[in-house]
Amino acid sequence: MTTQCDIAIIGMAVMGQNLALNIARKGFAVAVFNRTGEKTQQFITERVADEPIVPTYTLAELAGVLRKPRRIMLMVKAGQAVDEFITAILPHLEPGDLLIDGGNSFFRDTERRIALAENHQLLFLGTGVSGGEYGALHGPSIMPGGHREGYLLVQEILEKAAAQVEDGPCCAYLGPGGSGHFVKMVHNGIEYAIMQAIAEVYDLMRRLYALPTDMIQRFFEEWKESEIASYLVEITARILAVKDPHTQKPLVEVILDAAEQKGTGKWTSQVAFDLGVPTPIINQAVIARSFSFFKEIRTQLAPHHSEISPLPFTSHEAQCLKNSLLFAMVMAFSEGFALLKAASQESGYTLHLPEIARIWKGGCILRTALLSRLQRALTENAPLLFASAEFLSEVKTILPQVRETVHKAANWGIPLPVLGSALTSFDSWTSAVLPANLLQAQRDFFGAHTYRRIDQEGVFHTNWEECS
Ligand SMILES: NC(=O)c1ccc[n+]([C@@H]2O[C@H](COP(=O)([O-])OP(=O)(O)OC[C@H]3O[C@@H](n4cnc5c(N)ncnc54)[C@H](OP(=O)(O)O)[C@@H]3O)[C@@H](O)[C@H]2O)c1
């Protein structure tokens, strides 16, 4: 058994176990630790064969088996657990050691922890990891931010553990401060939006066109080889094929329509509001989950006599739905990258946007055939991604089909929070005229907030009570 481990992983839940195995299989010796020691023992007994993985049961023991400078990665529940571990491990560390938080921490918490690390002359990386359990084991997308010197200490390990694509490992140093966790947060916001867009297309297929699940499944199966090929479309095709052993129905049909959320989508919206960046698509994806949760009220308020008579479904409707999904995906990425750009300017993250698209191409929950095109589009420096030469003419071509889809859904009372807001977002960005002139007049009426004119410089106020 080695006593000079290259890296430690704290947190032996799904992500930590799989990442430890992945790193060990790349030839690095990994020390592992978990708050509840039995889980470490169980991991060693059940999953470790001849990988160089060293179990430890106290933080002193963990610090003792590591090569210096020590490299310690936390894969624990975001929030208090991270702070508790940092506090507990500090006495065992020396200046120059590196802490990596690989969980879904809020980027502002990461910034606070970086300051704490600096007070102790430690290095700190806040690192997003995407790919779930499978990605952690076989190669995730890794998004590190924080101290660049810290990245250099783990570059080889992280880049070998990451998924590999034609243009390199899906891991790159992203920038200082909480940039890694910021990027992961926005990644999760986009993920919410694309998942919801897929769910809306499924909903239209089953409710507006009354397609049986096996037929819906065949469309997703076909689309997984198309221009919208993506991990999320692929898992949807797989999910729709699974039968419930109790009822023999498709399993998806017996799953309650009330979605959970851990909060990363909500953070994205909150931060976007703070930065003044419109993210209606992500916002609506978060809200859609909130609506889903009110199952009882929805059931109570659902009209009893509103059975939809199924509409005809031909290759035209199939094309409309696929293109609506493509449109929503492009608009969701466009929104996410606009937020990344704004945050990079505001916080000095120096994010290289095409590089972010590149490291999402493999291992990542967001991986899609579109990402190579997004990479190219992001080098164009268009005001928004959807308005790049790479996408704009295609977006304009499919737009009538998106309008048709949203229109039909509205006619029949089927909510399309994401597809609908993707369209509204496009229409807002491409409207030279918006009715904000009236808003300004209203604000000036009740609050003397003043307004600007289209024909004169300066700020004006009208005594509306007297004039009206
Ligand atoms: N699951 C995914 O697909 C996924 C994907 C990307 C990122 N992430 C992020 O990666 C991190 C790990 O995720 P996970 O799903 O593997 O595990 P998790 O369920 O988020 O967390 C479980 C781990 O955290 C430890 N823990 C919880 N509360 C603690 C506390 N108060 N003090 C000390 N330790 C505590 C647990 O220790 P005990 O065993 O002692 O309870 C266990 O090791 C999270 O931040 C998660 O958001 C998860």
Model description:
- The chain is of the alpha/beta class and 468 residues long.
- It folds into three domains: 7-177, Rossmann fold (3-Layer(aba) Sandwich), CATH 3.40.50.720; 184-429, N-(1-d-carboxylethyl)-l-norvaline Dehydrogenase, domain 2 (Orthogonal Bundle), CATH 1.10.1040.10; 436-467, 6-Phosphogluconate Dehydrogenase, domain 3 (Single alpha-helices involved in coiled-coils or other helix-helix interfaces).
- Helices cover 55% and strands 8% of the residues.
- The protein has 20 helices and nine strands.
- The strands form two sheets. A seven-stranded mixed beta sheet has the order 3-2-1-4-5-6-7, sandwiched between helices. The chain has a two-stranded antiparallel ribbon with strand order 8-9.
- α8 crosses α11 (264-275) and α8 (179-208) packs across α12 (280-293).
- The radius of gyration is 25 Å and the shape is globular.
- The mean pLDDT is 97.
- The structure holds NADP nicotinamide-adenine-dinucleotide phosphate.
- NADP nicotinamide-adenine-dinucleotide phosphate is lined by residues 11-16, 34-36, 39, 75-78, 80-81, 84, 103-104, 129, 132-133.
